[in-house]
Design a protein that fits this description.
This protein is α+β, with helices and mostly antiparallel strands. The protein has a single domain, classed as 3-Layer(aba) Sandwich (Aminopeptidase). It is built from 5 helices and 7 strands. Strands 1-2-3-4-5-7-6 form a 7-stranded mixed sheet, sandwiched between helices. Strand 2 and strand 3 form a beta hairpin. The chain is globular, with a radius of gyration of 15 Å. It comes from Actinocatenispora comari. This is N-acetyltransferase domain-containing protein. InterPro entries: Acyl_CoA_acyltransferase, Bact_Acetyltransf, GNAT_dom. Keywords: Acyltransferase, Transferase.
Length: 178
């Protein structure tokens, strides 16, 4: 399988939606299928976006955002020792099952960390608790550090079912001096 990471283009969005649908059916990510999948893939605050391909087919993506989407942005910034506007968030990361185990997710994350660092930012992210299907083990294996936990503010279901969200900081090697 030939794999590649490259900047996302508008004509990649149908492939992103197709891959996301497969991921959602298998992994329940996103937890609730969006009414507008393209809009979900193109939220506010996007600084950069990449896709990963396998044999020239889009099989996943990652967004680098301005950090405004982080549930506990100020808490995360404090843990990083940075002003909140120096954070960037890793968001909307997924890789289709057929391309897992190829290192594409780690390569997408490394690309985001390097890009954020070049912009004077440090990466952070919010991820659902593992019992909700969140890939916390992936981030911990890559050296990310959990710095906060809260309930998902975006949840519209019953409070008793409100998902737990963990906030992580990228590894220290990606830290930006204050």
């Amino acid at each position: 399988m030939q794999t590649n990471i490259r900047p996302r283009r508008d004509d990649d969005l149908p492939g992103c939606v197709a891959a996301l649908r497969i991921v959602q059916r298998q992994d329940s990510y996103p937890l609730v299928w969006p009414a507008d999948p393209v809009g979900w893939l193109c939220p506010k605050g996007v600084l950069d976006a990449w896709v990963c391909t396998a044999d020239d087919e889009v099989v996943g993506q990652l967004l680098l955002r301005d950090g405004g989407d982080l549930e506990l942005r100020d808490t995360v910034a404090g843990a990083a020792g940075l002003p909140a506007d120096r954070l960037a968030s890793v968001s909307r990361l997924f890789v289709a099952p057929r391309a897992r185990g190829t290192g594409l997710a780690a390569r997408l994350i490394d690309t985001a960390i390097a890009t954020a660092a070049a912009q004077g930012r440090r990466c952070a992210l919010d991820v659902l608790d593992a019992r909700w299907g969140g890939p916390t083990a992936l981030y911990e294996r890559l050296g990310w550090r959990r710095v906060a936990t809260t309930s998902a503010s975006w949840w519209s279901g019953p409070d008793a079912e409100r998902p737990v969200v963990h906030s992580y900081l990228a590894p220290d090697r990606a830290s930006i001096p204050a």
